[in-house]
Amino acid sequence: MNIKKNTEKILLKDGLIIDPFTEKKFKGSILIENGFISQISKEISNEDSQVIDCENLIITHGFCDVHSHFREPGDEDMETLETGSMSAMSGGYTEVCVMPNTKPVIDSPETIKFIIDKSQDLPISIFPIGAITLGQKGNELTEFYEMNKTGAIAFSDDGIPVTNSNVMRIALEYSKPLGVPIINHAEDLFLKNDGQLNEGILSTRLGLKGNPDISESIMINRDLEISEFTGGMLHIPHVSSKKSVDWIRLAKMNDNIKVSAEATPHHLTFDDTNLIPFDTNFKVAPPLRTSIDRKALINGLIDGTIDCIATDHAPHSIEKKTNPFDLAPPGMIGLESSFGAINKILSSEKLPIEKIIKFLTTNPRKIMKLNQDLFKVGTLAQITILDKDKEWIFDKDFIYSKSHNSPFIGNKLIGMIKIVISKSFIFQR
Questions:
Q1: End-of-domain residue from the set 338, 367, 396
Q2: Contact in structure between 47 and 5 (CB atoms under 8 Å)
Q3: What is the pLDDT of residue 47?
Q4: Which CATH number characterizes residue 253's domain?
Q5: Among 65, 213, 293, 312, the one annotated catalytic
Q6: Residue 49's domain spans which residues?
Q7: Helix intervals (H) in 58-213
Q8: For a tag site, which of 118, 135, 328, 410 has the least CB within 10 Å?
């Protein structure tokens, strides 16, 4: 493993410092003492520190992922909090919000405490998202107040939509005084109708049941209406369709709707044609849609409709992913390949690296009410150092996750994470 504890003085020397919070950019150095930032300047001289040469590299905030699945408790054969944290750190992430669809479901103050206690000594900060309903069954709300007090950063039944509109209404109302978002898996299960991929010409050609784009956009429209009615904060995960982007864009013109949205690296990179070989690593929920939808997601990021990029890191065992396509579970891992994938796509759209970094740092932290000012002197060091132009082939040697269900394996990516510092741990590639 390339992750180790380091309590020595560290001097990050002569890198391009990009601070997404202050929007300042300059060539300089950062001195870290006892895990905390003690100095940021254009020139720092400190002879008794470990010097890391950052020439031709970018020094920026550690990334934050608002949507990951670490599978613990219950499916530790696929991922654990420990292996998930190593996977995240190697991908440039220093903070990760984990979804509650574990076994048992994270639906009580006790299970929230379990995640927090278990992650204390890990190299990144892990924030639990609590379930909206008990057992994610969609009926009875969980103890929002007590779970939030214990450490729940948001609430979601991710993987299962809240189909009962009144339950969704009450959830948004209850979360409002807590100032935390409700994250609803946007799929109308009746319209989805066990669809395995995007409904269209391709699904017909492949002989598989289709999942129409309206299964997502109709649910999003409903949730936006309820959000406006209640005043509650709504965060929309893994947006996949043009129709959905259009609804969110319209909603953001309305000051009475508090909404944010995320897109995933895989929905930005692939479309439904990638499913032609029946490779189950491309099977996700919501499904990969058309090239038109993919382009709409990119445009949604460019114009600010979509606020951030989240991995939806979803480990599965080889045994499960090698089932026939209709029986294989949806989901792919994504933390290790995230930056190289999105930088490849967005830089080709002439998006500046400063804006790409915001999608991974300040924007997700703003949604989750986490500290955004990470380059303030005295702050615990959460730093990612990257080479934005490095071309490389993503293979299994770069995977720290227990699972290898990634369609990015074998793909050329652009932009590599070189060094990550978090909680006095350091990762070096």
A1: 367
A2: no
A3: 74
A4: 3.20.20.140
A5: 312
A6: 3-59+378-428
A7: 81-90, 109-118, 144-150, 165-175, 189-192, 201-206
A8: 410
